[in-house]
TrEMBL record:
The organism of origin for this protein: Gallintestinimicrobium propionicum
Alphabetic keyword roster: Membrane, Transmembrane, Transmembrane helix, Transport
Predominant location category: membrane
Source organism, top-level taxon: Bacteria
NCBIfam families assigned to the protein according to its UniProt record, in alphabetical order: Na_transp
InterPro entries, A to Z: Na/ntran_symport, SNS_sf, YocR/YhdH-like
Membrane-spanning parts: 40-65, 86-109, 129-157, 169-188, 223-243, 264-285, 314-335, 356-375, 395-417, 438-462
Bilayer topology term: Multi-pass membrane protein
Pfam families: SNF
Record localization: Membrane
Record has Nucleotide-binding as a keyword: no
Cellular component GO terms, alphabetical: membrane
Name this protein carries in UniProt: Sodium-dependent transporter
CDD domains in the cross-refs: SLC6sbd_Tyt1-Like (cd10336)
Amino acid sequence: MKEKKGSFSGSIGFVLAAAGSAVGVGNIWRFPYLCAKDGGGLFLLIYLVLVLTFGFVLLTTDVAIGRKTKKNALNAFAAICPKWKFLGYLTFLVPVLIMTYYSVIGGWITKYFVEYLVSGDNVPAQDGYFTSFITSKAAPIVFMLLFLALTAAVVYGGVEKGIEKVSSFIMPVLVVLIVAIAIFSLTLSAEGEDGTVRTGMQGLAIYLLPDFHGLTVKRFLEILLDAMSQLFFSLSVSMGIMVTYGSYVKDDVDLNKTTSQIEIFDTGVAFLAGMMILPAVYVFLGKEGMASGPSLIFISLPKVFSAMRGAGRIVAIAFFLMMGFAALTSCVSVMETLVANCMEVFHQTRKKMCGLIGVYSLVTAVLICLGYNVLYFELPLPNGSTGQLLDVMDYISNSFLMPFISLLTSILIGWVIGPDWIVGEVEKNGECFTREKLYRFMIKYVVPVVMLILFLTSTGLWNRIA
């Protein structure tokens, strides 16, 4: 028997749930290290422009498609245009791939939180701690199971009683924790190896002030691509999540207003995450530590917490609790997308589909965990990097499928059915679509071109063409 489709109770519930999906590991982990790597304030400026243009267009498109069709990603595109049904399958494939590894990362965060909670010292700051943990055969699987079980429990509760209720509690707490840690970071100071005193405010200046040193056209394009990649990662667009959440939005909700609120919430948290992490890293590890890349959270920050001495453990507990909340709301949105689509396709209850997707997530996540020991390999990727099993899944979903899906979606909306289809949905209740002209121009002319370049670059084809 087909289960009745759930819905958010109102605009606040939708905004908090959508923001919870958008505000994830990407904001708090990826955004700061990209910002440090790509010229501080220069990256911030470029990213802000992209959020107000590309982010706004892609987010509005996904949410409007979901609400107008009242279908999840797998069937929504077929409802728009039957010949474009394949786009729904491509979109569905993204969360299928992301779900294989997101709970693994959630397990890493859970491990650090538990370690700081029960240990009286700074064990995670020891050299080799992270590598030793992820390469062990049992521990990563155990903590992944804990995180996955919590994710499944929230999704099992449904839209209003599960996702909305949890997001309404978690998101305010997450923001309070981020603000508190950010303020604390700005008060820090320490003497460097050269005898000079480094302060949190100096670190903030490095974070905020644009660095144009050595900037070339090629370097600018690299920063632009990093910022666009972060946009996908952050706003949860082009992966079916916002289409699914949009299908739960009631017709009387003002889409123009709510999508703007999601943009502000997501970008604000990313900005605060940088202000929370980078000044503290600068104080204790210098500018080199700020640009430590993907190892920032699990290797560099524990050393920062250790250098804080007495307050370090408390800050670490608060930090990884906040990281856990961010990872949970994002993982919930990925799993909900899979469950909701399967409920629609197989006409089964939420309970059965939660069980099915739960088993899939468990099996694939175990394989990802084993990718650091039993199944370890290094595979060269088209973008010039090399990676293990987790990196391969991340590359296919984020660097290959997302820009490709955005390219196809912009062609479908901009040229096949026309922007009026989306504009009419946004203005459904007489609301003013404040950025209508920008939307029409972007979806037809700018998004297709930029997404094509991004896709060709991320797949390595651009270098061959150029």
